[in-house]
Automatic annotation (TrEMBL):
This is MOSC domain-containing protein. Residues 22-171 form the MOSC domain. It comes from the Bacteria. GO terms for molecular function: catalytic activity; molybdenum ion binding; pyridoxal phosphate binding.
């Protein structure tokens, strides 16, 4: 069986600070800014929780990418999740987002490039999508290791239009690699 090439499944943005984001035909990524027209775009932090702590901090969460394979996994547990419902801007298929190191560059379509900065930490608003979903998106091993499964965050290195069906290319940073941590 041949694996499909990595692709963009869906794109989403929302101008308001809502948890879920409506799926769009396309989004425009703007270098050093984020998703044009999205409430979380900007050079400095835009997430309301982070703004209250330090509004001048660099925004390492300009773009949220989520792997569609997660939707398949949680569906087996009875959860129905579609693109945009968990607040992501780009839903992917065929890329092990959680296994990539910090600084990985992901080309989306012909022009846009997102540099990964860290893991998204799920928040309790996820239970507003479906009760119990947050517990499913954070796992703790017997040794106490916490696994955050709700996607990765990044900054826009190169702008461009991104659409469902666009190809994805992954460029790893030079070694040594550092695992993604929460941002």
């Amino acid at each position: 069986m041949t694996e499909a090439a990595p692709t963009v499944v869906a794109v989403a943005r929302d101008s308001g600070h809502h948890f879920s984001k409506p799926v769009r035909d396309e989004i425009m990524l703007v270098a050093n800014h984020g998703v044009e027209g999205d409430a979380h775009a900007g050079a400095t932090v835009r997430h309301l929780h982070d703004v209250r702590k330090d509004a001048a901090r660099p925004n390492l969460r300009q773009v949220h990418l989520m792997h569609a394979e997660l939707f398949d996994e949680v569906a087996a547990d009875g959860f129905a999740v579609d693109p945009g419902m968990l607040g992501e801007n780009v839903t992917t298929r065929g890329v092990d987002l959680l296994g990539l190191p910090e600084g990985t560059r992901i080309r989306l379509g012909s022009d846009a490039v997102v540099e990964l900065t860290g893991l998204r930490t799920p928040c309790k608003q996820i239970n507003g999508v479906q009760d119990g979903l947050m517990k499913r998106l954070i796992r703790t091993d017997d040794d106490g290791t916490v696994h955050r499964l709700s996607g990765v965050m990044g900054v826009v290195a190169t702008g461009g239009v991104v659409r469902a069906g666009d190809a994805i290319e992954v460029e790893l940073p030079d070694a040594p690699h550092r695992a993604l941590g929460p941002v």
